[in-house]
Amino acid sequence: MTWTPESWQTKPVAQHPTYPDPAALQEVLAQLKRLPPLVTSWEVNKLKAEFAAAQRGERFVLQGGDCAESFADCRPELITNRLKVLLQMSLVLTHGLKTRVTRVGRFAGQYAKPRSADLETKNGLTLPSYRGDLVNAPEFTPEARRPDPQRLLDGHTRSAMTINFVRGLIDGGFADLHHPEYWDLDWVQHAPLAAEYQTQVDAIGDSLRFMETLAGAPISDFQRVDFFTSHEALLLWAEQAQTRQVPRQPGWYNLSTHFPWIGLRTAALDGAHVEYCRGIANPIGVKVGPSMGIDWVLALCEALNPQREAGKLVLIHRMGAGKIEQHLPALVEAVRKSGHPVLWLCDPMHGNTQSTSNGLKTRAFDDIAGELTSAFAIHRAAGSRLGGVHLELTGEDVTECVGGARNLTETDLERAYRSQVDPRLNYEQALELAMKIVGVQGR
């Protein structure tokens, strides 16, 4: 079948809302199609090259951010804190792994979320499920839950503001390795890991000054870092509207993000999401869970990367700490034997979600760290390589995941549980996980 940006419309589509006014949707999509893109084709190609380097073991990929962004959180202090925690984690990983780190944020477009059911019932009232701010609002009222296409434009605007602010911070020297003190978060000055982190910062500063003394000049590569964006390619109407051809580059690019991925609920081989993603030039991620058989995954590899291009396809396994030993080894071995070039990332978050006694969703830090430890060992034993991690985290002082250095309990969750969708690692837990990755990889 010949691919076009519209060919996904001939396939079964999952996780799409039903808009009450189709004409209003088409009007918004026409506006979205005329707006400037959020990223450029050369940035997309650069990320693909870095993913190819990660496949070869020359880089490590850190992908992280909110489970689902909200319009209300498009605020400079929240964006800055999110950037800070990713920079600090990447500093720990670079120093400990002796490998360059590619930073990919789950932001500037992660406004939609898949749902397990189209409808939700409370106290006898049934309404559409909340599908993220790109679709509707979380309040349980008919007006709030009605899918509103205007939100697609609002999401594009906030994504553009987020990317612009992040680029401004980085170009202005915020990410300069000469000044990691810019990345400090006030609320964690007395965190259990603060002293260990500061020791690493001091060591990196000494090494940097030594190299610059030998070179006789500042090393410009350490004055800024590259940063890439990602989101789940869920609402294909919006993805199509930002899919463009560009001068002097073959093919079609999704210019709403550098790195779109396909979720577990939309990975059907004959589905609309696979059909859309197989035709774009961006690197593509696919979430892989324990319910997906080997034949399914190999068929996805063939469909999404038939030319076997390095850096093109990223498999993000999310098995769960209790299932990874059973399901991942055979899958890794099968992909290795097939010859398909893939970059493997581990998502240790989604397979480890549980509910507390009072109904809050949470994740245990030990399960998250345990799945990561197993993932590294499984890839090493199979002659494969785990090239990075995919995490849900925040730079805020939230209490959503139990455990970690402060040993948060179910009772602690009630202090600052703010997520409307999935529980996230807070800054301390994220930094601790980065240190554990270094420990595991250094074995």
From TrEMBL:
<keyword id="KW-0170">Cobalt</keyword>
<feature type="binding site">
    <location>
        <position position="392"/>
    </location>
    <ligand>
        <name>Mn(2+)</name>
    </ligand>
</feature>
<feature type="binding site">
    <location>
        <position position="422"/>
    </location>
    <ligand>
        <name>Mn(2+)</name>
    </ligand>
</feature>
<dbReference type="InterPro" id="IPR002480">
    <property type="entry name" value="DAHP_synth_2"/>
</dbReference>
<protein>
    <recommendedName>
        <fullName>Phospho-2-dehydro-3-deoxyheptonate aldolase</fullName>
        <ecNumber>2.5.1.54</ecNumber>
    </recommendedName>
</protein>
<dbReference type="GO" id="GO:0003849">
    <property type="term" value="F:3-deoxy-7-phosphoheptulonate synthase activity"/>
</dbReference>
<feature type="binding site">
    <location>
        <position position="67"/>
    </location>
    <ligand>
        <name>Mn(2+)</name>
    </ligand>
</feature>
<feature type="binding site">
    <location>
        <position position="106"/>
    </location>
    <ligand>
        <name>phosphoenolpyruvate</name>
    </ligand>
</feature>
<keyword id="KW-0464">Manganese</keyword>
<dbReference type="GO" id="GO:0009073">
    <property type="term" value="P:aromatic amino acid family biosynthetic process"/>
</dbReference>
<feature type="binding site">
    <location>
        <position position="350"/>
    </location>
    <ligand>
        <name>Mn(2+)</name>
    </ligand>
</feature>
<keyword id="KW-0104">Cadmium</keyword>
<feature type="binding site">
    <location>
        <position position="287"/>
    </location>
    <ligand>
        <name>phosphoenolpyruvate</name>
    </ligand>
</feature>
<dbReference type="Pfam" id="PF01474">
    <property type="entry name" value="DAHP_synth_2"/>
</dbReference>
<keyword id="KW-0808">Transferase</keyword>
<comment type="similarity">
    <text>Belongs to the class-II DAHP synthase family.</text>
</comment>
<feature type="binding site">
    <location>
        <position position="318"/>
    </location>
    <ligand>
        <name>phosphoenolpyruvate</name>
    </ligand>
</feature>
<dbReference type="InterPro" id="IPR013785">
    <property type="entry name" value="Aldolase_TIM"/>
</dbReference>
